[in-house]
């Protein structure tokens, strides 16, 4: 979008663990990591190979006639297909067999065995493919949370959202554009939960979303074999420029008890944050007992108090305590 400030995501080449921990991770900003060894998956994961190795196990997928998938308004349907048939269809632009239309789009986000309790893990859901993918050793093994297998049709765009854990997006095959927004720009993104209501980030309705132009747009194009470091709370929106296969690796960078133990997706707000938001809702209900001018006055005082207590400059972001980080 031309009216937004546009910032290119920096690219680091041949990044090893120490370089990541010392030069990339402490900045708490997105970074493309190029030349990291992801294993033989980059060469092997063709449509034919995936179909043969993945077999005919059923997978639950998203199917949409719209290129811009909208989770808030659900402009897609959930369907089930054998994995090898899904891969075949997702790699095609037009389909002989289809659910909704000849040019429908497909998207797979792998799930745990018990989707209500278990996070996705590549070596459990797709063991025949897992050995091909090497998880970069950029965090401690006990911090690992999930490895999410993703496959999408060419042209498919996923809604803007944030996650509460740090993650690495490995673009194994195909090219993908990723647009990111800083947590500091949250007020310009018209949030509904963890998702932005602005679906079309390239041509937004500025009558509905006039503040969106103030959000700074960080952008990159991932090539096959690239990694993208996405720090927790950074909003991201992806557009598949080609049929593509990727793996998201999430890890707990906060103490384990900071996270909701009943969250298999890793996108529920940390326990303390959820409590604070609930307390805020109760406080707002208390203000409902007052006349409008009093609600306005005390609401402004609350806003001032919250800003004073919590404001953090992006340039002075402080990392949480973690075995990954050392004081400067």
TrEMBL record:
InterPro entries recorded: Cupin_8 (IPR041667), JmjC_dom (IPR003347)
Cofactor field: Fe(2+)
Pathway: tRNA modification; wybutosine-tRNA(Phe) biosynthesis
Catalytic reactions on record: 7-[(3S)-3-amino-3-carboxypropyl]wyosine(37) in tRNA(Phe) + 2-oxoglutarate + O2 = 7-(2-hydroxy-3-amino-3-carboxypropyl)wyosine(37) in tRNA(Phe) + succinate + CO2
Entry EC number(s): 1.14.11.42
Keywords linked to the UniProt accession: Dioxygenase, Iron, Metal-binding, Oxidoreductase, tRNA processing
SUPFAM superfamilies tied to this protein: Clavaminate synthase-like
Top-level taxon of origin: Eukaryota
One function term, GO molecular function aspect: metal ion binding
Coiled coil location: none
Gene3D superfamilies referenced in this protein's UniProt entry, alphabetically: 6.10.140.1470, Cupin (2.60.120.650)
Residues of the JmjC domain: 107-268
UniProt record, GO biological process: wybutosine biosynthetic process
Broad class of enzyme this protein falls into: oxidoreductase
Pfam families: Cupin_8 (PF13621)
Family statement: Belongs to the TYW5 family.
PANTHER family per the UniProt record, alphabetical: HYPOXIA-INDUCIBLE FACTOR 1 ALPHA INHIBITOR-RELATED, TRNA WYBUTOSINE-SYNTHESIZING PROTEIN 5
Function summary: tRNA hydroxylase that acts as a component of the wybutosine biosynthesis pathway. Wybutosine is a hyper modified guanosine with a tricyclic base found at the 3'-position adjacent to the anticodon of eukaryotic phenylalanine tRNA. Catalyzes the hydroxylation of 7-(a-amino-a-carboxypropyl)wyosine (yW-72) into undermodified hydroxywybutosine (OHyW*). OHyW* being further transformed into hydroxywybutosine (OHyW) by LCMT2/TYW4. OHyW is a derivative of wybutosine found in higher eukaryotes.
Subunit structure: Homodimer.
Protein name as it appears in the record: tRNA wybutosine-synthesizing protein 5
Annotated organism of origin: Nothobranchius korthausae
């Amino acid at each position: 979008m031309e009216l937004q400030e546009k910032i290119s995501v920096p690219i680091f080449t041949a990044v090893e663990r120490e370089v990541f921990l010392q030069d990339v991770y402490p900045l708490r900003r997105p970074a493309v990591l190029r030349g990291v060894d992801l294993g033989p998956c980059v060469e092997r994961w063709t449509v034919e190979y995936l179909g043969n190795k993945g077999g005919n196990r059923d997978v639950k997928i998203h199917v949409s006639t719209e290129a811009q998938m909208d989770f808030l308004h659900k402009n897609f349907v959930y369907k089930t297909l054998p994995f090898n048939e899904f891969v075949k269809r997702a790699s095609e632009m037009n389909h002989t067999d289809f659910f909704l239309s000849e040019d429908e789009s497909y998207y797979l986000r792998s799930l745990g065995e018990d989707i209500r309790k278990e996070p996705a893990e590549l070596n459990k859901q797709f063991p025949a493919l897992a050995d091909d993918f090497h998880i970069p050793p950029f965090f401690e093994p006990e911090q690992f949370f999930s490895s999410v297998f993703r496959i999408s049709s060419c042209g498919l765009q996923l809604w803007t959202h944030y996650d509460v854990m740090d993650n690495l997006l490995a673009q194994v095959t195909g090219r993908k554009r990723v647009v990111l927004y800083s947590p500091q720009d949250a007020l310009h993104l018209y949030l509904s939960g963890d998702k932005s209501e602005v679906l079309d980030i390239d041509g937004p309705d500025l009558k509905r979303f006039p503040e969106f132009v103030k959000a700074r747009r960080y952008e990159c194009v991932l090539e096959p074999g690239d990694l993208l470091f996405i720090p927790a709370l950074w909003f991201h929106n992806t557009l598949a420029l080609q049929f593509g296969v990727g793996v998201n690796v999430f890890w707990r960078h906060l103490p384990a008890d900071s996270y909701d133990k009943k969250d298999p997706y890793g996108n529920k707000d940390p326990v303390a944050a959820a409590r604070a938001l609930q307390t805020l809702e109760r406080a707002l209900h208390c203000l409902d007992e007052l006349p409008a001018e009093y609600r306005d006055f005390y609401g402004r005082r609350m806003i001032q108090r919250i800003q004073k207590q919590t404001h953090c400059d992006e340039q002075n972001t402080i990392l949480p305590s973690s075995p990954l980080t050392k004081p400067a």
